[in-house]
Amino acid sequence: MDIRILRSSDIPHVQQTNITNLPENYFCKYYMYHALTWPNLSYVAVDVSRPQKTPYDQPKIVGYVLAKMEEEPSDGIPHGHITSLSVMRTHRRLGLAEKLMRQSQRAMTETWGAKYVSLHVRESNVAALALYRDTLGFKVMGTEAKYYADGEDAYSMRMDLEHLL
Ligand code: ACO
User: With a 6 A CB cut-off, is 126 part of the ligand 1 pocket?
Assistant: First the structure.
């Protein structure tokens, strides 16, 4: 499995992965906005056991992290934000999400001077909560009531990045 920066040509495949794994979906232009504005913050996991033999072969994207810098941080502190993360069911528990997150977090500090990274996650999302809290070290900062379109509350989470500098 290869972890590399998201390219514009990956976007339809990433969008398909997102639709398969999560109910929070985005227009193509929102992915493009991330890729063009913060080109080293979003990554894909590619299954290289199926190599591209011709330029027309499609890469097999099995996971992605879509990330950005907060553009107008209300606290005035530069910080990153994880817009979306998912890994295909067939490729879970291989450490891909952890690797995708760590790559993005490193680029947030090194290139963009981020002091911390934030995200939202469904209160019921046991797998993602374990990844963020136990594996990566995020902390729950609070709850946002009815954050999701179906009425579920979100945990607002944050992880300090200053130790990466
Ligand atoms: N149950 C408990 N702990 C888990 C689980 C699980 N199902 N999945 C991951 N973890 C924890 C474990 O501690 C794991 O370490 P271990 O395997 O050594 O025990 C650690 O996280 C790292 O796991 P990874 O293998 O890196 O995680 P994976 O690649 O399987 O992806 C993810 C995890 C992204 C949550 C995946 O399950 C998924 O795509 N779920 C559906 C989409 C989703 O919920 N995305 C997050 C939404 S929030 C947002 O996008 C900001």
Answer: yes
